[in-house]
Amino acid sequence: MSRDFGFKFHLRSAIGVRSILNHLVQAGWNPDDYGSVSYLVDPDFFDWQSTELENVESVYESLSATQESRLPCAIVLTWKDTQIGGSFIFMPSKEEVTLSPVINPVRRADCEMLLDFEWYLSRLVAVLESVGMSGLETFDYAD
User: Fold this and answer.
1) Helix 56-68 and helix 17-27, axial crossing angle in degrees, nearest 10
2) Which residue among 5, 53, 88, 111 is the one 20 to 30 A from 59 at the CA level?
3) Contact 133, 15 (CB under 8 A)
């Protein structure tokens, strides 16, 4: 059985990917995907790219340009030095951010099959509220 789980954060107004990333990085999230930066700017939303960490500024510029072209874009972020994180997907509307926590997902201690939503929310709600979060949705589905 496979599981699909994640978060959808809604924003009160259009906020660009660069602004949100700046806030997330200041809060402790970073673009370190096992020593590189993994990101998605493909119009078909399929072909992930990877580059060295030293190129993160050019990745941020590519993400911004993609979003300005009214296309979704994504980047892998992890929490501090834990290598726990996932794909942060930024929608063209600039009013929605989705997290698919696929990198070493944190499970509930009392029920291993479920994601520990609180672990993620405690590291995201305050920072996203500071950029205008208006609500959120969580999901955890078994196939």
Assistant:
1) 140
2) 5
3) no
According to DSSP, the residues that pair with 10 across neighbouring strands are 96, 135
Looking at residue 60, its amino acid is: Y
Percent of the chain at pLDDT above 90?
A: 87
Could you read off the pLDDT of 15-62 as tens digits, one per residue?
999 999 999 999 999 999 999 999 999 988 889 999 999 999 999 999
pLDDT band at 139 (very low <50, low <70, confident <90, very high): confident
Dig out the tokens for 87 from the structure.
């794909």
- Phi, psi for 138 (deg, rounded to 5): -120, 155
Rounded Cα–Cα distance for residues 120 and 102 (Å): 12
User: What is the percent of the chain where pLDDT is above 70?
Assistant: 99
Positive or negative, the Cα torsion across 111, 3, 89, 38? positive
**Best CA proximity match to 20, nearest among 103, 97, 120:** 97
